[in-house]
Amino acid sequence: VLLLAYLGYVGLGAGVLQALERPAEVQAARRLLQQHWELLANHTCLRGPALQRLIQGIIEAYKSGITLQGNTTSLGRWDFSGSFFFSISAITTIGYGNLSPSTVAGRIFCTLFALFGIPLNLVLLNEIGQMMLLGVQRCAHRLEMFHWKIKAALLMKTCALVTGLLLFLLLPPLLFSDKEGWTYEEGFYYSFITLSTIGFGDYVIGMNPDHTYPSWYKNVTSLWILFGMAWLALVIKFCINLLE
Description:
Blueprint: H1 2-42, H2 48-63, E1 67-69, E2 72-74, H3 80-91, H4 104-144, H5 149-170, H6 172-180, H7 184-195, H8 217-243
Antiparallel strand pairs: 1-2
Helix pairs in contact: 3-8, 4-5, 4-8, 5-8, 6-7
C-alpha cells in the first residue's frame, strides 16, 4: 500500500509538472531554433558547423565558470570563496551541478573529500539539530514551572517553527533579491531547494559575472546552509513521524 501511495504521489507530480512545464519547453525550443536560423541568414559568413562548435565551446566554458564579457573573459568561481562554497555544496550533497572539477586530480580529490566529508557533515548537522531541540526543550521546561505543561510544549514548538521559517526561508530571499537581482519568489525557491539538498542548480548565488559580491556573502550563505539544513531536517523528521 505504501509503495502504491509513493508511486501514485510521484506520478501525480510528474503529470502536474508535465502540464505546467512542457509548453514552456516547446516554446523555448522553437524560439532557439528560430534565432539560430535567423543568425545564419543575417550573417552569411557564418557556417553552421563552426557556429555549433562555438556554442558548444561557450557551454563547456560556462560549466567551468568562465563567461564572455566583450573581448575578455570573467574568472572567479574557483577563487577561495568560490571553492569554499563548492566544498560546502559537495559534502552537504546539494550538488548544484553548475560547477564541477575539470582536472583529473581535482575529480579524484573531490571523490575522497566527499567520502569523508559527507559523514562529517551528517554528524555536524545532527549535533546542530540536537542543540536546537535542546534549546526548545529547555525553554518549554521553564514555562512548565508556571503549570503550562501542555501549552508550553505547543508554544515552544510553534515558536521554533516560526523562528526557523523567518531565519531560513522567509528572510534570506530578501538578501538574495538584493545581491542577485532575483524576485522574492525566486529567492524563496532557491532557499528551499538548497536547504532540502535537492539542488537543481538553476539558481545559484554568486555566479552572475555582471554583479560585484561582497567578500562575506558566500561565507555567510554557507553558515546559513548548515544551520538551515539542520532546522529543515528537524521539520522533515516531524513530518516523517506524522506519516508513520
